Amino acid sequence: MKIIVFAPHPDDEIYGCGGSIIKWMEEGHDVHIIYVSDNRATRDWAKKGGKYIEDNEFKDHREEQMAEIGIKEAIEAAKFLGVPDENIHLFKFPDTKVEDYVSDGVELSKLIVKDADRFVMPSDHNNHPDHQATHNIAKKVIQELNLKNLEIYIYCNYNPLKVPKEKLVKVRIGDLRHKIYDALQIYKSQFVDEDMYQNSSAIKERRTERFGVFKFDDIEKYYNF
């Protein structure tokens, strides 16, 4: 099975479906990760939220340097999860500005998703603009390529998963949560935000990953899709 994971930012693949990625790789599936943005705005995001840690090793880095670091961390994290180099795709759109690049994202995605069996993507009605834009990219690809046999897994990092029971799938990740935690530690540049410490620790308690599972004909019929 060819599985395409859409990550709005480097680290969203971990929070959204890190354990599932590991399981899918172990089961022999052809897993690809599309990293849409470059994480350059991590410090600004943390400052706006009042969660910025002033004393950090990246405090004097330029924004372009943060973007380079974010991309390098994404590649390292994907490899840690078992994803091969040729299945790591980097759009490098500016963090917080993905909505300005939706058309570009659609065209770049079309080059990758040929013969895909499953999309794994962030939800609709998303209160993070980059996550909403990434959802829009993936959905437009589905519609423009008329992917009627595609299975669509929706994950929620920022907003609630609202799906009927018949659309809900739980993937048990068990002890994989420890490996997911280790994967998050690769994203050192993200630890300028206080929330990263709390969120990464919470991963250790996670036993399942939850998805809404949809088909082409479900588009616009559900809150998350």
What can you see in these coordinates?
With 225 residues, this protein is of the alpha/beta class. The chain has one domain: Rossmann fold, CATH 3.40.50. Helices cover 38% and strands 19% of the residues. It has 7 helices and 7 strands; from the N terminus they run βαβααβαβαββααβ. It has helices spanning 12-26, 42-48, 63-81, 102-110, 129-144, 176-185, 194-203; strands at 2-7, 30-37, 88-93, 118-122, 151-155, 168-172, 208-214. A 7-stranded mixed sheet has the order 3-2-1-4-5-7-6, with helices on both faces. Helix 4 (102-110) crosses helix 5. The longest helix has 19 residues, at 63-81. The two termini are 22 Å apart. The mean pLDDT is 96.
Question: Which helices and strands occur, and which strands form pairs?
Answer:
Blueprint: E1 2-7, H1 12-26, E2 30-37, H2 42-48, H3 63-81, E3 88-93, H4 102-110, E4 118-122, H5 129-144, E5 151-155, E6 168-172, H6 176-185, H7 194-203, E7 208-214
Parallel strand pairs: 1-2, 1-4, 2-3, 4-5
Antiparallel strand pairs: 5-7, 6-7
